[in-house]
Predict the 3D structure of the following.
Amino acid sequence: MRTGANTGQGAVRRAIHWSAGDDGARWAFRVALFVFVVVVYVVGRRQWFTQDDWAMLIGRTVQHADEGTAAWLFTAQDGHWLTVPVLLFRSLQLTFGLGSHWPFLLPTLAAHLGCVLLVRCLCRRLGASAWTTTLICALLLLFGSGWQNIMFAIQISYTMSLLAFLGQLVLVDHDGPVDRRDFAGSALAVVGLMSSGFGPVYVFGVALLLAFRRRWRALLVAAVPSALLYSWWFLAWETDSAGSIKGTPREVFSFTRTGVLETLRGLMGLSVLAGVGLVAIVALCAARGVLWRHRSALVVLTVVPVMLYAGIGVERVHGFGFASAAEARYIYMAAMPLAVVLAVALDQVRRYAGWALWVVRLVLLLAITKNVVWMSSHSLPWSRTVAGERHVLELIAGSELTKTADQSRQPLPLSPDVRVGWIPELVREHAVEPLVPQSDAEIALVRKALGLTP
């Protein structure tokens, strides 16, 4: 009996030891990947085309016909260079049509997954423990605080620039002469530039890292082609400024502070812990004893989100106000780099007390739970809105009233690129199934959308 009990106790100890080790952390991350697939399926099946999705699918198509291929590819939208999203959306439309939203959402989900995997690589490379890395990356997989960049198809624009930056950072983080990794990183930088207006900030971040490392030739390879290409585009095509009135230094500082703290609230799960996270990050970047190779990367990963928020504040603070700093699409962009620094910083508590590391991990588990809840609570109203837009278009398509309506009318306030004259084309591409209005309420809804007298 004692022998059996001892054997059982030994098996339990071995299981606990295995679970607490790197192998247990790897399997926990695989479980998180499975949960991610389930969550995005449940949430994603409610989504549909809306807002800037239509700018790619309709607005750019009209522009192509009216102004030619060059304007279609290179014209700025809200200050963003969008050649990569334009080509992606057009390819998907030609291949799959508009009968399903999934072909357009899946690339965004894939880019998001790629960002998380690169964050995982950076965490381990910079010294974060296996379990802290797993918890941080599980949090990012299900990052409800940044849900727009996960569940809104057109946000492939932002996410692709971030993916290119993280990929280039991983590639150029080596010693020695310039090699194919540096040239591959330079190619990624071009993709990032052509995906969103955040590309130049990311190129600067990589250049800063290489300057810290004194890899001057690698810096030229990483930054010069991108700088020349972006200068050409800016001078030739950047005519669509996001904001005519720029923020003052004080306004930009307040905007940036709000954004960074909101980002850390999302990562830590609680507003009261955002300041703790900020102190931990600053302390790590300034601490003695950190290898310069690690410190330089950690500083860059901290500086880049601050620069992003400062740039957004300059352009957007007057048009959208300070509250826009807490928008999910911006929080996402700042959270990915900051998560790496936060993971390394939180692990430092084990130097002072072993039990404190378990407290940190409990906080991260709470943050994961809260972000899953936020993913659902934020995306549900969004899905109801887009479902309402789709229903309006279906009723318009099934109504005889379209013949008397202004064909240039915009029936959807949130999606101005959709015009009445385009609805038959949406029917042909199976984006909309005509639905004949049956009730007085439905007829009134159609008349209001078409701008007709009640």
Q: What stands out?
A: The two ends are 86 Å apart (CA to CA). The chain is about 70% helix and 0% strand. Residues 123 and 340 are 5 Å apart (CA to CA). The chain has a mean pLDDT of 89.
